[in-house]
Design goal:
The complex is a heterodimer of chains A (312) and B (305). Chain A is an alpha/beta fold and 312 residues long. Helices cover 40% and strands 10% of the residues of chain A. Chain A is built from eleven helices and eight strands. In chain B, helix 4 runs parallel beside helix 5. The chains are: A alpha/beta (312), B alpha/beta (305).
Chain lengths: 312, 305
């Protein structure tokens, strides 16, 4: 037993690093800290898939997934797959296809999709009926899923909180289960994320048990985006729920939000689509610190878990 | 002594009800459900006669602790940016002037409190605001200073509600600690905190630890669920929250949110649920927990015979 660990590379921007600015040194630090893998940014305009594959192979790291950039503050442009405007919808679909090509190039098998809000979020509900926006989302998904299937890539749905995703379309794990049912027979799974689940789902562990085998990748972070333990996520109960449902995928960990200055010092990553490039080379001590602290916290908890119940 | 309970009227649209469209019937339902009062909507454009509304509230035996700010602050409410902290000085001035109008409305409606927030712009700046925290915080402090003075002259207390980072500006007023530092710095008698369970669930390390930290500075308290649905469907620990409020000697109101229901109900295209029954549900839920907390605390009280 034992979980496999991956780092969500784009969250390195929260501690002031950009995987694409200094890949070799960062990949080495990730490997040295004890991780098995790295989830790379699904950014076709910046990532050379083949070159990145050589680097991750050389570092001895797997690449389970490429992360999609869907929220406006992440993508830097409107990629709303469900709104009435054809332009962002088409932009989102084309972005997904290019990113799926990149997933293949880099040797990964999973690509993440969300149902993003428009730049100015519509709350508490979308203006249009949920059925209308949901049907548009499903139509976009069918086109993307068909493209992914031909290339052997599975799509993972990440339910986001209602500020980032369209309420009633994909803001809870239950929404995701219903979307999967409507997208059959395509190969679609769920990538739950603790931060988002804390805002949408009844309780995180119970919801993970309900999602069961649909979970193919798992985002591990904190309720306030601080370092693990600085919020109130019950990570032990969460890991136990994953053990109990027989989860065999990765724990894809987030780096914590640190300072405004650290986040502003990188040119890319969440919230930096329009930022100017910051310093590239830097001392890697704080990178190592956060990587080690995060995996250490989880591996300590792992020691306290009990084996899953034996099926009768 | 037991808590007193009020409804946040700005949340009635979630259950398909608009207080200002039919104040008499809505206030009667609130009283019938067993609430002690109502936080009225801070919407001066829609309040035709403050005298009438005040009379209607009094006729039902209700109190008005606060005139709410939700409509005033969230962009999706008024559809314009009224920011008390942002770098756009015009938007900040608009926010200050609008707040003064709302403080006047607060006085006219006989309420003692008015809430303010440090809002994100319409397109939120995430994960952090692009403007340095120091600048934003300084702007907010300046706005608060003006508003607290204006409010003090009118006998009103200003309460700051820390919002989660999607609605509020991180580094300015998204946590209780940030607001405490502003209260300490401004050192005026009429500035307090209005914690909100939903927002605290996103921003705070622990809801109860933050409430303990806020202590006597809590002047009003928003009770809602972590997913904004009915109390009990999320994972807020109300037993621990009410116990903490009693431990710190909180003597204010529990201002209860109505739950998100459906899009049809919110958009008033579908039939609204029975108003009195829907109002009663969270009240019964909370009173039941309050009773359990009281019993538990009495068991550990040194006066127990």
């Amino acid at each position: 037993m034992g979980f496999k660990y991956s780092v969500v590379a784009e969250t390195l921007s929260f501690i002031g690093y950009d995987i694409l600015e200094n890949p070799q040194a960062i990949l080495k630090a990730v490997k040295d800290a004890g991780y098995d893998a790295i989830d790379l940014p699904g950014n076709p305009s910046r990532v050379d898939g083949k070159a990145m594959r050589r680097l991750t192979d050389a570092a001895g790291l797997a690449v389970p997934e490429m992360l999609g950039a869907w929220a406006y503050f992440h993508a830097g442009e409107d990629r709303c797959l469900s709104g009435p405007d054809e332009v962002p919808r088409r932009r989102g679909i084309e972005y997904a296809k290019k990113a799926i090509d990149l997933v293949v190039e880099v040797g990964a098998h999973l690509f993440e999709i969300c149902a993003p809000q428009p730049p100015v979020p519509e709350l508490p509900f979308s203006t249009e009926p949920i059925k209308v926006v949901r049907d548009r989302f499903l139509a976009a998904m069918r086109e993307i899923c068909a493209y992914a299937t031909e290339r052997g890539v599975a799509i993972l749905l990440e339910p986001l909180n209602p500020y980032e995703a369209i309420p009633g379309v994909l803001t809870s794990v239950y929404d995701a289960i219903h979307v999967i049912e409507d997208l059959r027979p395509y190969d679609v799974g769920i990538q739950p994320d603790i931060f988002h689940m804390n805002m949408s789902d009844p309780t995180v562990p119970d919801t993970l048990r309900a999602a069961g085998r649909h979970i193919r990748h798992m985002h591990i972070n904190e309720t306030n985006h601080g370092p693990l333990g600085a919020g109130h996520a019950d990570h032990r109960a969460i890991l136990q729920a994953l053990v109990d449902i027989g989860y065999t995928g990765y724990l894809a960990v987030y780096m914590p939000y640190t300072t405004q200055a650290a986040a502003a010092s990188v040119a890319h990553g969440y919230g930096h689509a329009d930022a100017k490039a910051g310093p590239v080379s830097r001392d890697l001590s704080d990178l190592r610190f956060h990587l080690e602290q995060t995996i250490g916290y989880l591996k300590n908890l792992e020691q306290t878990l009990v084996p899953p119940p034996i099926a009768a | 002594m037991g808590f007193r309970y009020v409804v946040v009227a700005d949340t009635l649209p979630f259950i398909g009800c608009d207080l200002l469209a039919d104040p008499e019937a809505t206030l009667a339902a609130i009283a019938q459900a067993g609430f002690d009062g109502v936080d009225l909507p801070g919407n001066p454009e829609r309040v035709q006669s403050t005298e009438n509304l005040r009379r209607q509230v009094a006729a039902q035996g209700l109190v008005v602790p606060e005139v709410s700010g939700a409509w005033a602050w969230a962009y999706y409410g008024p559809g314009e940016v009224r920011n008390l902290a942002g770098p756009d000085e015009a938007a900040r001035q608009r926010g200050v002037e609008y707040s003064k109008k709302l403080i006047d409305l607060t006085v006219a409606l006989g309420a003692p409190m008015f809430p303010v927030c440090a809002m994100q712009p319409a397109i939120p700046d995430l994960p952090f605001p692009k403007t340095p925290f120091e600048v934003l915080r300084d702007n907010f402090r300046k706005s608060l200073e003006v508003l607290c003075r204006y409010a003090a002259e009118r006998g009103v207390t200003v309460v700051v509600e820390p919002l989660n980072r999607y609605e509020g500006l991180t580094g300015v007023a998204t946590t209780v600690k940030e607001v405490l530092s502003l209260i300490e710095e401004l050192n005026v008698g009429n500035l307090g905190i209005q914690p909100d369970v939903f927002h605290m669930n996103v921003a705070e390390n622990s809801v109860c630890a933050a409430l303990h930290g806020a202590g006597k500075h809590i002047r009003h308290m928003h009770i809602n669920e972590t997913n904004h649905f009915s109390l009990g469907t999320g994972h807020a620990d109300y037993h621990a929250i009410l116990k903490t409020l009693k431990e710190i000697g909180y003597a204010g109101y529990l201002a209860v949110y109505m739950p998100f229901t459906t899009q049809e109900i919110w958009q008033r295209t579908g039939p609204a649920p029975d108003l009195v029954a829907t109002l009663q549900r969270p009240l019964r839920f909370l009173k039941e927990i309050e009773t359990a907390v009281d019993l538990q605390m009495a068991m550990y009280s040194p006066q127990r015979s």
